[in-house]
Automatic annotation (TrEMBL):
Signal sequence range: none
Protein name per Swiss-Prot or TrEMBL: MAM domain-containing protein
Coiled coil: none
GO cellular component terms, semicolon-separated: membrane
Top-level taxonomic group: Eukaryota
Species: Magallana gigas (Pacific oyster)
PANTHER family attached to this UniProt entry: APICAL ENDOSOMAL GLYCOPROTEIN PRECURSOR, MAM DOMAIN-CONTAINING PROTEIN
SUPFAM superfamilies named among the record's database cross-references: Concanavalin A-like lectins/glucanases
Length: 84
């Protein structure tokens, strides 16, 4: 059991997406995906991870939009043992 916690900021009319993934045993799984404009503010997300694999990786995948009105930022990322 792990808890992934982070603050994120997604602002702009052309904002793409931000995905939080886990990779285990050669397979990628999307835990949570945020799409589009979430306003000019920081949001807090927390995800509980249940992994039975002996090793795994976290991946953050961000895609900005097609223009300059598209910003994505991540801050204060932490991974701790236990549920969120």
């Amino acid at each position: 059991q792990y808890c992934l916690s982070a603050y994120f900021h997604m602002y702009g009319q052309q904002t793409g997406y931000l995905a939080f993934n886990i990779i285990q045993a050669g397979h990628k799984y999307t835990l949570k995906k945020y799409v589009g404009n979430h306003g000019n503010r920081w949001l807090h997300m927390r995800l509980s991870i249940n992994s039975h694999a002996p090793t795994f990786q976290f991946e953050m995948e961000g895609h900005t939009g097609s223009g300059y009105h598209s910003d994505i930022a991540i801050d204060d990322l932490s991974v701790t043992h236990g549920h969120c």
